[in-house]
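Hi,

I'm pasting everything inline rather than attaching a file, because the server keeps stripping attachments. The sequence lines come first, and each chain or strand is labelled.
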Amino acid sequence: MTDRNRLIYLPLGGAGEIGMNCYVYGYGPAGKERLIVVDLGVAFPDMDGQPGVDVIIPDIAWLEERRDRIDAIFITHAHEDHVGAVGHLWGRLKAPVYCRRFTAIHAIRKLEEAGHDAGQVRVTLPWPEAVTVGPFTVQFAPVSHSIPEASALVIDTPGGRVVHSGDFKIDRDPVVGEAFDETLWRQIAQDGVTAFICDSTNVFTRHPGRSESQLPEPIGELIAGAKGMVVATTFASNIARLKTLADAGVANGRSICLMGRAMKRMVTAGVEAGVLTNFPKTLSPEDALDVPRENLMLIVTGSQGERRAASAALGRGSYLGHELKEGDMFLFSSKTIPGNEVGVARIKNALAEKGVDVIDDSHGFYHVSGHANRPDLEAMHDILRPRILIPNHGEYRHLREHAQLALSKGMTGIIAANGTMVELSGNAPGIVDYVDVSKTYLDGTAFVGALDGVIRDRMKLALNGLVAVALIVDEDDVLLEDSWVQLRGLPEVTNGGADLAEMIEDDLAEAIPRIDARTVMDDDKLEEAVRRIVRNLCLTEIGKKPEVAVLISRLMAA
Amino acid sequence: MTDRNRLIYLPLGGAGEIGMNCYVYGYGPAGKERLIVVDLGVAFPDMDGQPGVDVIIPDIAWLEERRDRIDAIFITHAHEDHVGAVGHLWGRLKAPVYCRRFTAIHAIRKLEEAGHDAGQVRVTLPWPEAVTVGPFTVQFAPVSHSIPEASALVIDTPGGRVVHSGDFKIDRDPVVGEAFDETLWRQIAQDGVTAFICDSTNVFTRHPGRSESQLPEPIGELIAGAKGMVVATTFASNIARLKTLADAGVANGRSICLMGRAMKRMVTAGVEAGVLTNFPKTLSPEDALDVPRENLMLIVTGSQGERRAASAALGRGSYLGHELKEGDMFLFSSKTIPGNEVGVARIKNALAEKGVDVIDDSHGFYHVSGHANRPDLEAMHDILRPRILIPNHGEYRHLREHAQLALSKGMTGIIAANGTMVELSGNAPGIVDYVDVSKTYLDGTAFVGALDGVIRDRMKLALNGLVAVALIVDEDDVLLEDSWVQLRGLPEVTNGGADLAEMIEDDLAEAIPRIDARTVMDDDKLEEAVRRIVRNLCLTEIGKKPEVAVLISRLMAA
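And the predicted assembly:
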């Protein structure tokens, strides 16, 4: 290793998955680079993979060990998968957090909730304002996305210019916020771009992206035709959509009521940051009760089927005094994120049972994506003409497709999933190292490693059920024949009508006298022997091998 | 109630959900109707709702109580959601099973596996052959679908003619099996149709359905361009697709190898039933190892992401000696059923990591649905012109949309979800009763009711983890201070570094002396007291309230 300076890129989250974004850039001699962090996001757990977990955050062990080399944290925008972990992780990194004003409102709240110093958040103006930290000069270049003030980062180092796209789309008329500014991007490209780290979410979508400004017309027509109450749901953070929906409601003689904590918080933040102007006057849920339903429009949270959000509550019954009925209309102005289909369908079905007309994209054109589709990705490639393209913000198949697209256009496309360190500088840029990265689960207040086995054990309980067995070894080291058995998540009665717990106790009473003294003296061996007896009986009786917890109480001579 | 005869319809599964089809028709005086059963299908569980369950079957308690009135069971086609429960449930109904030959092969195997008399399966020829049982005359009218010999049932009674569509699409050139025969359907409609019970799966899909015969060309072109091994997956039962895929492989100089038990079983059944002719010669997986990869095509199971199927195995590593690598191609000639998205994406990502080109419908036109799209549903409505249309085979939102479509066309559309009994005859047909129906889970070999709480308890274990506590009450009714604690699915060590199980034991040792004697004497009260102590401590230490199993051993005086 020489002491020459190098420019490196290392994704710790968000590359090889969608969610939990966390990227590192470094510049300096190998192993001594100064570092900046881009985004500290969360991912959301599901029953299939992380039951009971509150939120998934990046594994930042590598960063934490190098904390003294971190010059700053940059947050591209205020979506949870980019800013959501800043409260959970800041205390382990303790570097200043740079972001734009709307994003800062959210970052500050998260730091405060976690008991950290909100003064660490430094509000930054967009391009051409520049932040210089260590060897890095960073500018926030506005992009359009589905939240205000989303930004790409233009990162200049002595090793070259990197453009980190963040989440973006090309929208020349985004209703709220900054339109795509081709002149700006051509200016950024002018002196050469070493590497473009680019959003890959929609690389499989072949038609050009559509503009937010195409929505007011069809949504207005839909509401104009509604006879009862109108309810619309979308992501709370999609403030442009909230405005489109609310404006369409008002234009059709409806008062607007926002429901759901996140929704009100986002609108307040939008007004506070100055990005949301002319949002119609809204009624409180209570005041809205006095409005005839044909003059009312609710805009609510829960477009992804979240069980605790307003949409799900309205599906189940009434929410804050409002109840939907035959002839009302419910609009999903949103896309269902893969994995949420069943939860969203559950709400649509519950609403249909109430006689509500449920409208979604299968009925017309009521949503546009916040991510660049394939032709728009190509347009950005063509403007920036980077030496290297590294796809991020995608599952592995998105990264591969995007890298192949880059190759087909004469760029160097490098697939770098989480933990892959890429040198961007030098004569032969490419992968230089692999770092072990896992994921961290926030489970209640405990941090649990994804590989710790804790959650795997919970899934085993869910799949197999549990038999708990209490045994007593008396003062003379004799294992008593009586055991106490409890079942969890197993049928109490077999198909034959017998009590399963009693059968297990009887079976153990018969087997225990045959367990030899050496086994009785050894906790592990005794547990294993009892587990085997219980599992074999259950396999015979109910066709299942349950988990078995054996609790051995050893009585001491008084 | 008079003794006039009535014609009734009662769905027990499949109406208000997709899967687990089971419908009842009855004719006779109210409460004394003779009955026939149409389909006995299963639904598949998921981690989100039924962890560890093997399969979900209809709750047939209502039918079982009226077993003496059941004249026959009819199976429309051999998909698992129509025939899958025949082995599990036949013993409780014991009526002859009528179906066409290809379906019979599967029904017979299922009866045999369950130890029932396979002779109960009566192979029936299609229209105009008729089966007369009790007051019913039933004809199997061929429809196109994604499996051979799918049939609608034309059910004639003195109360009128009912057409039960089964799963169907309109395909005038289905590659394998019977084409849509408009003349036949006009003939069926000629004398008037009282009720049309109709598939609703694709009611939200607005473009006309596409024919299986449109696929050979694009699939052939795709394979012609492949450089390495080609693997394709689809539903094993979609024999037309298997033939399309295999023919395209052979036409491009490739030997064909089928992988996965279900796939081989289906092809064998297709040949045996005479519906599959000219299927190319296939190689065994072992012999296929000798074929150069550019001359080989594997057709494999697992298009829905099933972890144990061939597709998943090839994603993880090698399967039967075959391993995919850079430059190979993997085609999903299938649609992902809602709920399976994450599992399918897992395989696609694993394959992408190996450098395999994963092709699906986002790349072109490689799949057609087996269900009638909205315009095709309308075409069937227009041919049959039924007095009543009752949507089935759909979630509630599908049923509602389909009923509204019927209304908009001047028919009487009745939404009848599982348990809704509809009279089809008389002057004012409509809902006449509601029957309590649940679902039954086959869990190992045990039948568990969906409302029994067993599976709900397993989900609680998955979400909250478990603390098992063993306590001893001695011969003098004194609760010993020592307890024995085991954790399952909880972090062993708190964020502060303490051993959680030990903390619980210490906390209990402190609390136990304060538990009064009356509580100690009462199992329920003592359990509740201990549970509260444990949950409060855990809430403080790890921010979670776990499930708690308390095992109280009461020692008896010797």
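The first strand of chain A starts at residue 5 and ends at 13.

If the labels don't parse on your end, tell me and I'll reformat.
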